[in-house]
Amino acid sequence: MSVISVEHLSKEYQIAKKEKGLRGAVKNLFVARKTIVRAVNDISFSIEKGEIVGFIGPNGAGKSTTVKMMSGILTPSSGHVYVNGTDPQKERIKVVQDLGVVFGQRTQLNWDLRMGESFEMLKHIYRIDSGLYEENMAMMNEILGINEFLDTPARQLSLGQRMRGDLVAAMLHSPSVLFLDEPTIGLDVDGKYAIRKFIKEMNRKKQTTIILTTHDLGDIQELCERLIIINHGIIMEDGPLEELIDRIAPYKNLVVEYFDENAVEHEKAIILSHVGNMVTYRFQKADLTAAQLIHDISAQMRIKDVTIEEAKIDDIIRIAYGGKENGEKE
Amino acid sequence: MLAYRFDVFASIVFQCIVMFATSFFWKALYSNSDTVMGVGVQEMLTYTIISALMSIFLTTKVEDRVIESVRQGSVAMDMMKPINLFGIYFAEDLGYLTSLLFQNAIPIIVIGSLFITIPRPASWYHFLAFLGSFLMSFFINWFLSAIFAMWAFSILNMNPLVQAKRHIIRLLSGSIVPIWFFPSWLAKILNCLPFVYIYQLPLDLYIGKGTPASMLPRLAIQFAWLMILAAAFAILQKRVLRKVMVQGG
Q: What pLDDT score does B153 carry?
C-alpha cells in the first residue's frame, strides 16, 4: 500500500480583485469582485514507503497548496488525499501524529522558550516515550550538532540554527512521513550540507518517506530519487531525474578544439557551431558515445582538446516547467 | 512571560491606576451618604479591588493569537500538532493566567489591601459561591472570546471588532460601574445578556449584595449562558476547522 496517495486533487481559491486608486478602494469596499483561481487542478500520484520525492515547480505553481492539503491544513475543493490510508480531512489528528513538517519560512519552535524547552513540549504533545526521545535527540545531535544552542531562545537563533532546530522538532516523534517545504532556503553552504545529510540519514535509518519542495538544484540532484514537477496546478513530469534528462535532453555536446580551422564531419553528429578552431558537435546519447565520437574524429584529424557538455539541470527543469523550449545553451 | 520584564511592570502600573482612580471615584461619591442602593463604601471599595483582580483572570489571548496566526499563516503550524486547535489556545491561555497570577494578581491584592481596603468577602459561604460563579464566568468569557476568534478565520482584520467587544464587556458587565446604578430599563436588558454574568454576578456574591433567594435564579441564568456559549462554540468550531484558510505559501 502506498504511504501517500493523491486522487484527482483540486483546489480553488477566491481572490478579491482590487481596482487601483482611491476609486477602486472605495468601490472594493462595497462590491468586492471575486475571481476564482485554480491553484491545483486535478492531480494524482502516489508515493511508496521510503521514497524521497522532490516536489518542484516555479513560485505559485501549487506546490505548497498541495503539501498543505496532504497534511490536512487546507480542504481540497475536490478529490482525495490518503496518508497511510487515512484521510487527513476527516482524521487530521490521527494523520498528523505520524507526520513531521518543516516549513522553511515558518518555525514551530516557541519564540520565547529555550529551544530545548520547545522540544520538551513536543515530547509531551506527541506523548513521546522518554527512551525514544533521548535516543532521537542523541542521534540527531550527531548529525546536526544542536546541543550547542539548546539553551538559546528561538528568537536569538540564526537561520541555520533555527532550521536545524525545526528539523529536529519535526523528527522527534519518529514520524513515518516528513514534509519539507523549502528546507534549505536562505542557508549557507554548511547549513545546506548538514540538512541534506540529515535528510539522507533519516531516510536510510528510519525508512522515513520524505516529500520536499525546493528551488535548490543541489537539493534536487543530491536528494531526490524521484521528481514530481508541477506548474499551473498540474503535474508536468513525474519520474527520476535521470529519466527526465534522458527524455528532455537525450543528447550531449562535444566541443572539439582542432589545430586549424578545418573540421571533420560525422554521420551521427550534427555540427552546432564552428568558430575558428572550435567545433561543437551534438549527438544523441542513444546512437553514439562520446568516446566513439572522439575516436572517429581523431582518426581523421589531430585534436588539441575536447570538452563534453551535458544539458544543464536548471535548463532541463525550466523546460520541464513548460517554459522556454530552447533553454539549452547555444 | 518573564522574558518581557517591562511589559509586566507596565501592566501592573496600568491596572493599579485604574483601580485607584475607581476607588477615589467611589470615595468621592460616598462622601455624602453611608449607603447607596444598600451598598456601603467598604463594599464598593472591595468591589473595585475584586473587579480589578477578576479582570486579570478574564484576560484572554485567544483572539489575538488566532488573528496573528491567521494573518501570518502560522496557523498551519498549529494545525500540524495532533491536538485540537482550540485546545492549544485554551492551554496557552491557562499557562498565561498562571504567570499572571504571580506577576499581576498578587501585587494587585497586596497594593489594594495596603492602600485601599482589605477586600473581605461577606462570609465564607459568599466566598465559595463567588468561586463557583467565577469559574462559570471564566468559561463564559473564554467561550465568547473563542467564538469571536473564530471570525478571524473569515474576516482578516478582526482587531477593531475585538477591541469593541472588550470595551462593551467592560462597560456592560458591571466591571467598572455596577449595573444597579444603571437605569432600571437598561439593567433589565443587561440582565438578559451574558455580560453581567461575567463580572456583576460573582462580584455581587462576593460583597453579599442580595439574598440567597434572589441569587439562585441569577446563577441559573449564568449556567444557562454557559451552556449556550459552550454549545455555540462546539458547533462553530467544527465548521471553522473545516474551512480554515491559510494565508500565503
A: 77
Quickly state the pLDDT bin for B152 (edges 50, 70, 90): confident
Q: Are residues A183 and A269 in the same domain?
A: no
Identify the CATH number of the domain in which residue A88 sits: 3.40.50.300
Q: How far apart are CA A321 and CA B114, in angstroms?
A: 73
CB contact under 8 A, B80 and A73: yes
Cβ–Cβ contacts within 10 Å for residue B101, how many? 12
Q: List, in sequence order, every residue forming a beta bridge with A209; answer none if it has no partner.
A: A177
- Expressed as residue numbers, the domain containing B226 is 5-242
Residue of A nearest to B87 (CA): A125
Does residue A24 fall inside a structural domain? no
Residue ending a domain, choose from A245, A265, A286: A245
B181 in a domain, yes or no? yes
Residues of chain B above pLDDT 90, percent: 36
> How far apart are alpha carbons A246 and A263 in whole angstroms?
28
Interface of A with B (CB under 8 A): 64-65, 68, 71-75, 92-94, 96-97, 99, 101, 103, 105-108, 112, 125-126, 153, 181
Query: Between chain A and chain B, how many beta carbons pairs sit less than 8 Å apart?
Result: 54
pLDDT over 70 (residue B249): no
Please answer whether residues B119 and B46 qualify as being in contact, where contact means their C-beta atoms are separated by less than 8 angstroms.
yes
Domain tally for chain B? 1
pLDDT digits (tens, 9 = 90+) for A107-147: 888 888 899 999 999 999 999 999 999 999 999 999 898 89
Same domain, A224 and A210: yes
pLDDT 10s digits, A163-191: 999 999 999 999 999 999 888 888 889 88
Q: What is the pLDDT of residue A263?
A: 82
- Asked if residue B247 belongs to a domain, the reply is no
State ipTM: 0.75
Chain B nearest-CA residue for A90: B242
Closest Cα of chain A to B249: distance in Å?
6
The 3-state DSSP composition of chain B as helix, strand, coil percent (nearest 5) reads 75, 0, 25
Cell of A133: 526521545
Q: Are B132 and B61 in contact (CB under 8 A)?
A: no
